[in-house]
Amino acid sequence: MQVKKFKDLINSVIDDHAQYQSTYKSxxxxxxxxxxxxxxxxxKLLTKRLKDTYPFFHPHYAGQMLKPPAQIASLAYFxxxxxxxxxxALDGGPSTSxxxxxxxxxxxxxxxxxxxxxxLTSSGTLANLEGLWISRMVSPKSNFAICxxxxxxxxxxxxxxxxxxxxxQMNDRGQMDIDHLSKLVKAKKxxxxxxxxxxxxxxSLDPLHMIIELKKKYxxxxxVDAAYGGFFKILQNEKSKLIDHRPxxxxxxxxxxxIDPHKHGLQPYGCGCILFNDTSVGKFYKHDSPYTYFTxxxxxxxxxxxxxxxxxxxxAALWATLKVFPLNxxxxxxxxxxxxxxxxxxxxxxxxxxxxxxxxxxxxxxxVNYFPNETSTAKISTESERxxxxxxNRKSKPIYLSKYxxxxxxLLKLHPNIRKNSEETIILRSTLMKPEHEQYVDEIxxxxxxxxx
Length: 453
Ligand SMILES: *Cc1c(COP(=O)(O)O)cnc(C)c1O
Known about the structure:
By secondary structure, this protein is α/β, with parallel strands linked by helices. It has 2 domains: 94-283 and 299-324, Aspartate Aminotransferase, domain 2; 333-451, Aspartate Aminotransferase, domain 1 (Alpha-Beta Complex), CATH 3.90.1150.10. Helices cover 42% and strands 12% of the residues. The protein has helices at 3-22, 37-49, 71-81, 94-111, 124-138, 153-161, 178-186, 208-218, 233-237, 246-249, 261-264, 312-324, 333-352, 377-393, 408-414, 437-451; strands at residues 117-121, 144-147, 165-168, 192-196, 221-226, 256-259, 272-276, 357-359, 367-372, 402-407, 424-431. A 7-stranded mixed beta sheet has the order 1-7-6-5-4-2-3, with helices on both faces. Strands 8-9-11-10 form a 4-stranded antiparallel beta sheet. α1 (3-22) packs parallel to α3 and α5 crosses α6. The protein is globular and about 75 Å long. It starts with a helix and ends with a helix. It binds pyridoxal-5'-phosphate. Pyridoxal-5'-phosphate is lined by residues 123-125, 128, 151, 153, 196, 199-200, 225, 227-228, 260, 263, 272.
């Protein structure tokens, strides 16, 4: 880690905070709360307790969607956490509410929303909860269409929100099967559609462009879960050739979009975001809070959010990050996402030339799914497990992958030569979501191949 500048900036954050406090009349802080030798011991103990954390920062960690935030995000978060504003109401976070509105506005512009309502949430799940809740409020009689590739939380949210749903099949690209959806729509079985741009498993893009056509014809309500893949919209905006533009082109016509700055927006947890392209849905949030909303007649974010307390530090971290990594040019987040996408394309290229490793399907963003070239589903599972464990547990140069359980019938549809002898198959999965992965993908691939029998 390049510590010099980082340390300098942490020091200046602490100095700035002391400066800010000194503008108020001095007082004697409680002796209970100031840092002392107990704090020091607690921190040492904490460091020890953290030793089992996987090295998310390292390019050899190519497993789940996990990586440390950008340093600017950590610094801004720390800076604002020292004040601890609450973006529920302007009473709690007047400055950071402004930062939240500006940061959300950048995301809305990236998506192409003009008249929108939006705010940050503590997670993608919460953002989706709000999206589905509003869908349900707008068309209470409609059932939902949820694809089998969708994040597991959507069907569970059906219990929270009390809606019924139909499961849409996934096609051989890991996307929502548009023919199946059309059938359900024409049979009037569904009216609300949950579309995923960037599925958690395969990183696939549901055909939003076709779903928007159906929406026009049949008046569907469309919520897009872009928790993981949403920021790739920048690549389409900037005309990059690295991704399929079509699913992103009509994103601004979706009724709501959930997108996670803590997935691909370089943020610490928890930072999700929900946007609606119709400000009138604000009426469904209407409530009164006898404790808050006093300092200003301007919109308090808590008035249009399901959550009450939310970290002002989270908004500040995103705001500061977007100053360094803007969303509207080739110079900011674009560079990072192009790089992670190239890492996935390189992995694909290596796998297609190699007999020992097979891709489940072509990656669309920066997640790759692959398996050792074995003859049966059970053998693929045991070999995947073995490779996963060996790479992770070895002393020298450990490499971290993740596993993914797929339906064997689905795998066989894509790879008919495999013999089915188990209902599910464990395969390997890597999220190549750090810019360093582009440089390390060859090495990671070689290490995996080396272990295939
Ligand atoms: C991660 C993810 C979620 C859940 O978001 P959290 O921030 O983990 O709550 C939902 N949908 C998709 C597609 C995701 O990748």
